[in-house]
Design brief:
The structure holds 2 protein chains of 2 kinds.
Chain A (H helix, E strand, L loop, with lengths): L3 H9 L7 H4 L3 E10 L2 E11 L4 E5 L6 H9 L6 E6 L2 E2 L5 H4 L2 E3 L11 H12 L3 H14 L15 H13 L5 E5 L7 H18 L2 E6 L2 H7 L2 E6 L2 E6 L1 H6 L4 H6 L4 E11 L2 E6 L2 E6 L9 E6 L4 E4 L5 E11 L2 E8 L4 E6 L8 E6 L5 E4 L3
Parallel strand pairs in A: 3-8, 3-9, 6-7, 7-8
Antiparallel strand pairs in A: 1-2, 1-4, 4-5, 9-10, 11-12, 11-14, 12-13, 14-20, 15-19, 16-17, 16-19, 17-18
Helix pairs in contact in A: 5-6, 5-7, 6-7
Chain B lengths: L14 H7 L10 H22 L9 H8 L1 H32 L5 H14 L1 H12 L4 H8 L13 H25 L3 H9 L4 H29 L3 H5 L10 H11 L3 H26 L13
Helix pairs in contact in B: 2-13, 3-4, 3-13, 4-8, 4-10, 5-8, 6-8, 8-10, 9-10, 10-13, 12-13
């Protein structure tokens, strides 16, 4: 997927990743725990991140993803487990001794310093000589396309520009690890898309190991080499964006990956990886996980785009509750006879209360054991 | 302008709309009670005082001011008051900073703030009484030191400079602390975390990041605390040496107005007192303008 040689070449020209290969090592989280009183914010996290990888920690608020990031940064102490970088234990180091670059949701720029001083702060702390420091600040600001703004204060820049300064400030110190805590959530939708592409392109040019916290699955899918889905302080699934999108292994993960419809059903027949499930008065085909047996109660998950509304044929009968136009298609919600809410796609607008038949596309239905 | 000539032109907006466009509407009336109170209780007495001070019983209009500035017994009160209020204010503000930094991270802040507000509510007289008993020659403090043979004779800590000093610290500190705490809490914690991840040690984080952001708030805290301390009166009499080192300017004004019955001289001294305070406040705020004064939180776009 990535060619480290090419990446280093590309970064050589801007001089930001010169010794990143030497400094970079594998990041290992081993049974990392963090409690707040009786509350387990992190309940035994095991994760290995390879040098140069872009990892997204994805999950709803309160799942422990920011806690995990703060533990890696050293802003929170662990209550158990250890963190290693390149084999060296780092979880007992102060944050200032770790040398990681961190980008915060609130940007956390120093409001009283010019952009140049903000970006140069980490270099000044490291005692980098002035001439080299000037060059590196210049390169970093070029990377985030902010030349000409050096003398301004953060308050004089727009939100997107401020976040770029924060990124420049984090990468100018050539950190072995870049940590990003929901860096785009304060930006508007359009800017968010632009910055997303920019973050990915910066990562590809400097090749630094990056850990990116987000609650937005689109962001995680488009940015990360691997995604770590978290819930209740635990890791639910680790995989490539494609793995998670196509083969979520848990109902929570599926829920996060856009499988909005969730019905309960019973397995009628099995053949290979496919199952026939009876649900909401219909029998549908689904991909079954390995441990499912005939007669099991299961949860059936489908994405709205994979559940199509028609008026005849096999399928789940339902009554339209709401419908909205989203460009190429209509998306709506209908209720089945047992009260399940079904989210579907259609090529036309339906009236509220209209009886429709919903047909899942072949191979797009996932099954999960009840209570799993 | 003419309403008759405007017959064919679009009707001009009503008076109410024109006023509203300038920010004057029904809500504006709510400031009236405040304005009236300010006029009656502040502006009028202030002007009355100025006029009174410029109308001496005998001599030219500036006679009162000449009396004050030619009599060492009078003009030295300015130095005596500064000598008390400036160190006390500096100590209060400087000591408040580290404590506020610690308290900022505490969860039960309310209990602590309640304890700290108590001395403010007790009033200076009660504090003075307590200090007389505690720090006096036969008070607990001296008794304890003598019990442990640390001293042979009681240390004199009341009816002199140090008694007033202690009282001003006790009544002034909570005020300075609460203000400082609110300024310290107003700084986005992520800013400090960012400095830490960039390699700044605690000392560098304080001097390079926190302090520059706190300076404007500390200047305000200093001014308010200073004005409070400069107007010291009861404790200077009860705990100090009101005819000697702690003869502060408020005592001079009181004696002129209510012991010599020269209200005109009393008013002049009060105005000198106000100008002295104003001078210090202007100097401090002037210094403040050399620093960054924008918001100290995370700014959104």
């Amino acid at each position: 997927m990535h060619d480290p040689e090419k990446r280093l070449d590309a970064s050589g020209e801007i001089g930001l990743a010169e010794d990143s290969k030497a400094k970079n090592g594998r990041l290992e989280l081993i049974d990392v725990r963090r409690t707040f009183g009786a509350y387990n914010a992190l309940d035994g996290i095991d994760l290995t991140v390879e040098p140069g990888e872009f990892i997204a920690l994805l999950g709803p608020s309160g799942c422990g993803k920011s806690t995990a990031l703060n533990c890696i940064a050293g802003l929170l102490e662990l209550t158990g487990g250890e963190i290693r970088l390149g084999g060296r234990r780092i979880d007992e180091l102060q944050p200032e001794a770790r040398g990681f670059g961190m980008v915060f949701q609130s940007y956390a720029l120093f409001p009283h310093m010019t952009i140049r001083k903000n970006v140069g702060f980490g270099l000044a702390m490291q005692g980098v000589p002035a001439a080299e420091s000037q060059k590196r600040i210049h390169d970093a600001l070029g990377l985030v396309r902010l030349h000409g703004q050096e003398g301004k204060l953060p308050g004089q820049l727009s939100g997107g520009q401020q976040q770029r300064v924060a990124i420049a400030r984090a990468i100018v110190i050539r950190p072995p690890l870049v940590l990003m805590d929901e860096p785009l959530s304060n930006l508007d939708a359009k800017l968010r898309l632009e910055m997303r592409a920019e973050i990915r392109s910066i990562h590809e040019r400097i090749g630094s190991t990056t850990i990116y916290v987000t609650h937005d699955q689109d962001e995680a899918l488009s940015l990360a080499d691997r995604i770590v889905v978290m819930r209740d302080g635990k890791i639910r699934q680790i995989g490539t964006p494609e793995d998670l999108y196509e083969r979520p292994n848990h109902l929570d993960v599926a829920d996060f990956m856009g499988f909005r419809t969730r019905m309960t059903g019973k397995v009628k027949a099995l053949s290979g990886g496919d199952a026939l499930v009876e649900t909401c008065g219909a029998t549908i085909e689904a991909q079954a996980p390995g441990d499912i047996k005939i007669g099991d109660r299961v949860a059936v998950s489908i994405r709205p785009e994979d559940l199509v509304a028609t008026h005849e044929g096999e399928g789940v009968k339902a009554k339209v509750e709401s419908i909205e136009y989203r460009g190429r298609a209509f998306f709506g919600m209908a209720s089945a006879s047992d009260g399940s809410e079904l989210f579907f796609r259609s090529d036309r607008a339906h009236a509220r209360g209209e009886e429709i038949v919903l047909q899942p596309l072949a191979g797009r239905v996932r099954l999960f054991r009840e209570g799993a | 302008m003419s309403a008759v000539a405007a017959g064919s032109a679009p009707p001009s907006p009503s008076l109410r709309k024109r006023l509203a466009a300038r920010g004057i509407d029904g809500t504006t009336l709510l400031v009236l009670p405040g304005v009236i109170l300010t006029l009656v209780l502040f502006v009028y007495p202030c002007i009355y005082g100025v006029v009174d001070s410029l109308s001496p019983a005998k001599g030219p209009w500036y006679a009162n001011y000449r009396i004050f500035f030619t009599d060492p017994f009078q003009y030295k009160t300015i130095a005596a008051t500064l000598w008390l209020s400036v160190p006390v204010t500096l100590i209060n503000v400087v000591v408040a900073i580290p404590i506020a930094f610690r308290v900022r991270l505490m969860r039960r802040q309310r209990l602590l703030t309640t304890i700290l507000v108590l001395p403010i509510t007790l009033g200076t007289v009660l504090v003075a009484d307590g200090l007389l008993n505690f720090l006096g020659p036969r008070g607990w403090f001296n008794k304890t030191l003598m019990f442990f043979d640390l001293i042979e004779h009681p240390i004199r800590l009341t009816n002199n400079y140090w008694g007033v000093f202690a009282s001003l610290i006790i009544t002034g500190f909570p005020f300075a602390f609460l203000l400082t705490l609110s300024y310290v809490s107003g700084i986005d914690p992520a800013i400090e975390q960012a400095a830490a991840t960039l390699g700044a040690k605690a000392r560098q984080r304080f001097f390079k990041v926190f302090l520059p952001l706190l300076v404007p708030g500390l200047a305000i805290t200093f001014c308010l605390s200073f004005v409070q301390a400069f107007s010291v009166f009861p404790s200077a009499i009860l705990l100090g040496a009101p005819s000697g080192p702690t003869r502060v300017i408020a005592i001079a004004a009181y004696q002129a107005a209510f012991e010599q019955y020269n209200h005109s001289l009393g008013a002049a001294i009060a105005i000198i007192m106000g100008l002295a305070q104003l001078l210090v406040v202007v100097i401090v705020l002037g210094l403040r303008s050399l620093f960054y004064r924008g918001p100290a939180g995370g700014t959104k776009g």
